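Working notes for the structural subgroup meeting. M.R. asked for a predicted model of this chain before we commit to crystallization trials. I am recording the input and output together here so anyone reviewing the notebook later can reproduce the run.

Input as submitted:
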Amino acid sequence: MDVQTPCVNRRQFLLAGAVSAMTVTLGSLFKGRVFAADEHKTATVYGFEKKWIAKLSEIKTGDTIVFLFPREDAHSLCTLYKLGVRAGGGIGPDQDIVAFSDLCTHMGGLLRGNVDFKSAVAGPCPMHLTTFDLRRHGMVVSGQATQNLPQIVLETDGNDVFAAGVVGLLYGHHNNMERRDRA
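Returned structure, recorded in token form:
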């Protein structure tokens, strides 16, 4: 009986099997999906009844205005900031007035009062030190949070500034429309 040496050793056989399994699995996961460099992502915007916030002409660089939106409860704490630098979603002549929820998206830590106007960063959250970039739609800079800080959609009507909607999901809600009567 003549014994031939195998043309594929055990390591090569297992590696080829693993690569084949990964190819089949990834192919089925992404079947029919198109990935394009210019694919635009959209945010979910929840619209609410407009709420008056301030007079545009009275807001100065470095100002913060605390308000409740979209409801009048503790889970709706928000702050308007005049950053002094252009910001995504900003309003006003310099597009530097933005507003965000005051509750960290990680565990609901209160961010109000924690803002560095030099870098336009909110935080750190007192619970786990997450910081958010207020110039870039509340994007996470560092920390435990994995979601952007919900941005309040601001509108102007003449000299009046109104809160009109929320981009993103408010902390503690499955959707922004539900009431939070329990603590």
